[in-house]
Design goal:
By secondary structure, this protein is of the alpha/beta class. The protein has helices at about 30-35, 55-60, 110-115, 125-135, 150-165, 170-180, 185-195, 235-245, 255-270, 280, 285-300, and strands spanning about 1-5, 10-15, 20-25, 40-50, 65, 70, 80-85, 95-100, 120, 140-145, 165-170, 200, 210, 215-220. It binds adenosine monophosphate.
Amino acid sequence: MSVTVVGSIAFDAVKTPFGERERMLGGSAVHFSLAAGFFGDVRVVGPVGDDFGDAEYAVLHEHGVNTDDIERVPGGRTFFWAGEYEYDLNTARTLDTQLNVFGDFAPKLSDASRAADTLFLANIQPDLQREVREQCGGVQIAALDSMNFWIESTRDSLLKTIAGVDMVLMNDAELRMLTEEPNLVKAAAAVRAIGPRVVIAKQGEYGAALFTEDGFFALPAYPLETVRDPTGAGDSFAGGLMGYLDSQGGNADDATLRRAMAYGSTLASFWVEEFGCERAERLTRDEIDERYEQFKRMTAIESVPAT
Ligand code: AMP
């Protein structure tokens, strides 16, 4: 089994109440692939500029991420995002978005990337997401993320892309914005009516909610006392979730989806302890499994004694 992801590959400038970084490795596809890489083979698709150097490739390679489909554009500059968080760490304020090499990128996937079982269209221009979706005809599960930036500027294209995937993972505020529906239950139903079987609403420090035909499930976030930078939380959540589903042979029934959400939350909890990918770079699978087991025990409501 293997996962292919397309999304931003970036340098980020981030400021939170706990510190700042002027230029760190980031991007939705980078956070996603580092997280998914703990579960199996991951291939990342997207362009970078001359400023994306050996040190950045090394972070991906050390986590087993295949970078053959990263296209280096001579003379180009890598996608750049600057954002800021205040004490409510759930909402990023975008200060700058420079698409750079994404401006005229036309993805051409290798046979190996096309043959993936699991596809994640991480946050990036929805036309590009759709071009990749069309090249990966044989996948078992295709999922997508997006954000306000694309809802505002490319809404129709985003709706078309959503119609071609099995699963949507988006922030709850962005699901409401996309569907112009303030009630989250109705917003999830409206997205499911376009085509996807599964909708997962990410709710920052409050966790995530799952909507399928058969049911509803809500999971809190892992209770952390130290959160320094939420950048990458959503993508590492998606990476843990999709990586786990891929490792289960693409099974996406409700029980497997619930476990996948717990893995996603576990991954995200490590990400936010430090800036960008800094914690992820030292993370091990043993640490992930240990926290996952602890999280499972904390949230096992079946084991609450009857009164
Ligand atoms: P999240 O996991 O939701 O915190 O996403 C964080 C990543 O999203 C950052 O590393 C940014 O580089 C990336 N990002 C920010 N804005 C955009 C955008 N408009 N399109 C694609 N990626 C973005």
